Amino acid sequence: MTTEATPPVAGAGPRALARQRRRRAAVRFWRQYRTHRAGIVGLAALALFGMIALTAPLTVGSDVASVTGAPGRPLQSPTGEFPLGTDRFGRDLLGLLVWGARVSLLVGLLAAVLSVAIGAVVGITAGHFRGAYATVMMRVTDWFLVMPTLVLAIALATVMPRSLGTVVLAIGVTSWPTTARLVRAQTLAVESRPYIERAKALGGGHCHVMSRHVLPNVMPLVLAQTTLMVSSSILAEATLAFLGLGDPLVVSWGGLLQEAREAGAVSSGDWWYLVPPGIAIAGVALAFTLCGRAVESVLNPRLGVTR
Fold first, then answer.
1. Facing residues of 92 across strands?
2. Which of 117, 166, 202, 275 is deepest in the core (most CB within 10 A)?
3. Is 116 among the domain residues?
């Protein structure tokens, strides 16, 4: 069932018209997005993970990560009191898993936003100015592309203090080249349109053209790329934490895997120490990927993504 577009309000100012257009665009986006079953499943899973992370202080409490006064025996198998067993310190693994969702999701989101922001700035400026500047920036981008992202992130995290900020920075500054390439290609396509020439002929400067004409046209691509980058950032954070390069004072899913490895959970068969964090990482990464593919399909129907 289709609904007719709301006609512009007579006498409305430019800002009111802009808000009205944005509302119509949001309605159209949601109407198309909800036709993607995989995207809806991913969105529901993300809502569940987000609710678990936000309510963690109320459901498990901040003292769940405390080593002193742990409620159970070390490496206790799952029981009615501890559904996922205990870790090597006797802490409830279910509570640690819930609390770790806060750190893993936060680091993944911040790292993805930083990565996409760097890539968008490089891509837009390189596509707009061209010439020697674009050549230099694209060669730098190519260098980052051929270098293994994880190796660069490990090297950066090794020489900097161990903290969540370091992890975010290490992931963000090493994973932007793909976004820069995509945004530059879109910028070149936008810059070739006639209204860009008219804006320049009417006296529009570089900042005006990039912020008022180029950026709104590349934002759908930036949004889709951000959604897809979150899953990669969460996996990268888990990898760095598993290698012992994360913040040792906070609980994350990758940190739980690293503690399980140090406790010898693999050789001793303590599956409850390894499986839940791994499933949580895979689940949230899959949810973000499903949402990202659905967003990409809505914003670019020519991709023909299967619903």
1. 86
2. 166
3. yes
CA 283 – CA 289 distance, rounded (Å): 10
Is 0.85 surpassed by the pTM of this model?
no
How far apart (Å, rounded) are the C-alpha atoms in residues 284 and 43? 10
Whether 29 is covered by a domain: the verdict is no
* 73 occurs within a structural domain: no
Domain count, the chain: 1
- Cα 36 vs. chain centroid, distance in angstroms? 20
| CATH code where residue 290 lies | 1.10.3720.10
Q: Which string of b and e fits 220-253 if b means at least 16 CB within 10 Å?
A: bbbbbbbbbbbbbbbbbbbbbbbbebbbeebbbb
Instruction: Note down the domain range covering 192.
Output: 36-60+88-303
Instruction: Indicate the residue type of 206.
Output: H
Digit-coded pLDDT (tens) for 123-150: 999 998 888 999 999 999 999 888 888 8
Residue 14 lies inside a defined structural domain of this protein: no
Q: How many CB atoms are located within 10 Å of the residue 205 CB?
A: 10
